[in-house]
Design a protein that fits this description.
This protein has helices spanning about 1-25, 75-80, and strands at about 25-45, 50-55, 65-70, 85-95, 105-115. By secondary structure, it is of the alpha+beta class. The chain has a single domain, classed as Beta Barrel (OB fold (Dihydrolipoamide Acetyltransferase, E2P)).
Length: about 120
């Protein structure tokens, strides 16, 4: 009986570790999005995650929500600096997420400041 219980527990743990590794390493898609950075915050009560939004249209009708993992220190600093500016984001879309990673499946890996195609800020 103890042997069967040990095997069942081992299988459950291996399945959980495999699922975590799959979500962490496998990407559903990756690409770029550009828009005005309208929100970037460190939110949560017990577990803080970095969340943001860019507006991809003049009226703000198309909003792209994203998350940033804590290990991306350079990306976090740039997003804090570029608040209100037009930015280009490189993202990775995951199959799923965990509550301690972020609220979305889109994780930003690079950010750069871009010239807005809508407004000329000379």
């Amino acid at each position: 009986m103890k042997k069967i219980l040990g095997i069942i527990l081992t299988v459950i743990v291996l399945m959980m570790v495999s699922w975590y590794a799959f979500l962490y390493f496998a990407n559903y898609s990756d690409g770029y999005r550009s828009g005005e950075l309208i929100k970037f915050s460190h939110k949560g009560f017990l577990v803080k995650t970095w969340e943001g939004e860019i507006s991809q249209g003049i009226s703000g009708a198309q909003i792209f929500s994203f998350s940033v993992m804590d290990k991306e220190d350079e990306v976090i600093k740039k997003l804090q600096e570029y608040q209100g500016e037009y930015v280009k984001l490189k993202y990775e879309e995951k199959f799923g997420t965990f509550f301690f990673w972020g609220d979305t499946k889109y994780f930003i890996t690079e950010v750069s400041l871009e010239q807005s195609p809508h407004f000329n800020r000379n």
